[in-house]
Each structure stands twice: as C-alpha cells, then as structure tokens.
Amino acid sequence: MAATSAASEVGAPQESARPRTSARHKARKHALDILFESDIRETDPLVTLEEHLTIDVTVREFTSEIVKGVREHWGYINDAVSERLAEGWTLERMPRVDRVIARIAAYELLFTSTEPNVVVSEAVTLASELSTDESPAFLNAVLSGLAPSRSAD
Fold first, then answer.
1. pLDDT, tens digit, for every residue of 59-116?
2. Crossing angle for the helix pair 23-41 and 116-130, to the nearest 10 degrees
3. What is the C-alpha end-to-end distance of the chain, expressed in Å?
4. Where are the domains of the chain?
5. Could you tell me the CA-to-CA distances from 49 to 4, 30, 43, 63 in Å, in that order?
6. pTM, two decimal places
7. CA distance 148 to 67
8. How is domain 24-152 classified at the CATH fold level?
9. How would you classify residue 127: left for phi > 0, otherwise alpha for psi between -120 and 50, otherwise beta?
10. E-strand spans in the chain?
11. Cα–Cα distance, 69 to 34 (Å, whole number)
C-alpha cells in the first residue's frame, strides 16, 4: 500500500507541471491540423473541414471559424504575409507548418478582434511546439510586422 501511495505522490507534481491549454489554443491547433492536412493533400480547406465535421464531432466553432476565414481571405492573407518576408523568401520556401501558422495568425490579426499580442504569442507557442528552433523568432518577426497594419485598415 505504501508503494502505491509513494507512486501517486511522485506522479502528482508531474501532473501539475503540465501546461494547461485553453480551449482557443486547442481550437487553433485543430485548425492548424486541418489546414496542414489540406495543404499536404492539395485540397480545398473547406473540403477537409467538412470531412472532419462528418467524422469528428469535437470540431470547435472557433476551429471552423479560423479554417473558413483563412480560406475566404486566402489571397489577401498570402500577400500580406509574403510582403513581410525577408528578401529571397517566399511562402513556398517556408516550412509547411510555419506557413500554416502564419496564415492562421494573419487571419486573426487582420479579420478578428483578437488582441494582436495574443495572436502573436499563440503563433510563437505553436511554432515552438511543432516546428524548427528558428521558427518562433521568424514568425514573431513576420507577424509583429503584420500586426500594426490592422489599425491602418
């Protein structure tokens, strides 16, 4: 019995050390998954979203909003991000996951009322979790350059 008690005590700090993720963070991550899948399969993001809606009852409303928004403003978002890339860089040259994260963040920065610092922070967090070591700083620079143009619109 003491061994079980000791094991549960050892496990408790690990659980509390785990970072908590918000529902909106999970929704962004799911949108990233859908848009990433769509990019790999070279399908319309709305088709991929619809497939997920038919097989996955846990698609959050915010996930759908992001995917639909990115798709609706695809050209504008791609142009806005491309304009902020360093010379010699293109969207196609970016790692696929960074490109998708940049599109999600650009949609939120340009077409929603989400605070820019929250959007950039979420994008950097996703890049830290899912991409290269250089990606968080790269996306921070690109998206920080994009954030001020929101007030100019």
1. 999 999 999 999 999 999 999 999 999 899 999 999 999 999 999 999 999 999 999 9
2. 60
3. 65
4. 24-152
5. 45, 10, 10, 9
6. 0.83
7. 23
8. N-utilizing Substance Protein B Homolog; Chain A (1.10.940)
9. alpha
10. none
11. 13
